[in-house]
Amino acid sequence: MRLAGILIALVAVLFTVSLISGYSNTSMADSLAALIRDNGTPLSVVMREIRLPRALLAMMIGISLGLSGAAMQGYLRNPLAEPGLIGVSGAAALGAVLAIQSGFALSYALALPLSALGMAVLAVLAILFLAGPRGSSITLILAGIAISALAGALTSLVLNLSPNPFAAAEIVFWMMGSLADRSFQHVWLALPFMVVGWALLLSLGRGLDALTLGEDAAEAMGMRMTRMRLVLILGIAASVGAATAVAGVIGFVGLIVPHLLRGIVGARPSVLLWASALGGAAMVLAADIAVRELFPTRDLKLGVLMAMIGAPLFLHLIYKTRKEMA
Amino acid sequence: MSLLVLNSLSAHRAKLPVLEDITLDIQPGECIGLIGPNGAGKTTLMRATLGLLPFEGHSSLAALPPAKRARAVAWMPQSREIAWPVSVATLIALGRIPHLPRGASLRPADQAAVRAAITRMGLEDMAGRTVTRLSGGERARVLIARTLAQETPLLLADEPIAGLDPAHQISTMQVFADLAREGRAALISLHDLGLAARHCTRLLMLSAGRLVADGPPGEVLSERNMAQVFGVSAYYSETDNGPVFQPMEVLP
User: Fold this and answer.
1) Where are the alpha helices (DSSP H) in chain B?
2) Torsion sign, CA atoms A261, A265, A269, A273
């Protein structure tokens, strides 16, 4: 309970900092006043139409990635699992890449995220078909790897055959993941999918707890494995698919956040779901503040920074695990 | 009132029969040992009984909806998988999941059940320790406590005492016998026929997927059954201290 309070406070503080950080010299009080009341100044426009959706998206994406990561690790009973495993983010990226390459992305603002979401839906259908009707986790991983590989190959193919270097550069930059220049349109597009995804994933708590004892014991405790797997796939697909559609590929959050929090809130999967949702929000908010504050004049990509932070953290975790095993 | 009824239960794996035509009935007050050589079908019988694998015939437990079944029978699988480094008390409390309303935390009755299970298995000193740091035998006792915390009329356990030291083997068998005396029932598979003879009220002997003997230990562990099913000679004697059973030699 106390930890929940601390995490919520952390997210609230980072959300506020995110709102006031950026390339303009205004006081915090002025900025927040302009946010709360539309006083017709340019600052008000910046706060209400650029900063607020950006901070909201960072929070929503963080919740999606953290929650999905915790659910995936709990389901597979493996601390190295991450939401990208089921291939949805790779497929969403392919959808976005196709939209950029074909020029469809220029036709209207939501063309790109919609195309990404469409591809994510296709990936889910393919995974459900490939993984088969029984609730095994092995076939799910194999299906996910196959879809990821296929999406990656097709993305490379599009880049390879791209006749237009500008489109290729745009694709590469988009794939690095960013929250720059997003609007409330993106928030409204992603939010319904994410809320559905969050609800599905949070409903898995009991089942994931029971799975601590293995699939056989969990099933004997009244859990329906086939249904659990379906809820997991749909939950991750809806939340991570929407996150990738609006922000590109942001790695490591779903892997690192549950891992870090396991040492603090304990390893029980149902508790870790909530904690990782909040922790993920904090981490993406912090990273998105950092990309603006570290290099205000260069467009440092969020996904790049996340990987720069995530990889060393991961190395530290390996070191810690090795020490524990010795 | 039967706690479990099996009627002509059969199971196949890759079209080969692994269980054939098993019919039995378990009443409250029974502590039943399921015995048989490796590969006789003990695990398959328990898993089919629970509806964890496809079978033909009828199992009264498999017929129940999952949530209801979880309040009628607790199951300890042979694999002692514990995925996460949680505390012993947290792990045992997982046994309360079938009784808890969705999203609720442990109520006083649940906490009492967890404490009772800890006491029964003598785990008081271990409650705060991390399960993944325990030895194999200690883990087994924690997992038995987890099934006890489920407080079901019937308990199914697959080789629960394998890997335990002699004192804990005896005390654990005593726990199963106590459950039976309290009007519940236990069906456990085991290879220690001496302990089975001493603590079980009834034995089920499986051989190549068939139930070849069902009755009190003295009857089931007959010289003929031991020779035919296990291929060993054995020593059996009723003493003032209860039955003593010891397999002796592999028969030619």
Assistant:
1) 42-49, 66-72, 88-93, 108-120, 136-149, 166-181, 193-199, 217-220, 223-225
2) negative
What interface predicted TM-score (ipTM) does this complex get? 0.91
A222 contact B CB<8A = yes
Residues of A in contact with B66 (CB under 8 A): 219, 222-224
Query: How much is the pLDDT for B138?
Result: 93
Domains and CATH numbers, chain A: 2-325 (1.10.3470.10)
Whether residue A279 contacts residue A66, with contact meaning beta carbons closer than 8 Å, is answered with yes
pLDDT digit string, tens, across residues B60-77: 999 999 999 999 999 999
Task: Name the burial class of residue B243, with classes exposed (0-12), middle (13-18) and buried (19+) by CB atoms within 10 angstroms of its CB.
Answer: middle
In a mutational test of the B interface, the residue from A219, A228, A272, A276 whose CB has the highest number of chain B CBs within 10 Å is A219
Q: Number of Cβ pairs closer than 8 Å across A and B?
A: 78
For A66, A259, A316, B162, the CA distances from A275, given in Å and listed in that order, are 8, 11, 21, 38
Chain B's closest residue to A269, CA to CA, is B84
Residue ranges, chain A, pLDDT below 50? none
List beta partners, residue B31: B186
Domains of chain B (ranges plus CATH)?
Answer: 4-79+153-250 (3.40.50.300)
Binary contact (A223, B81; C-beta < 8 A): no
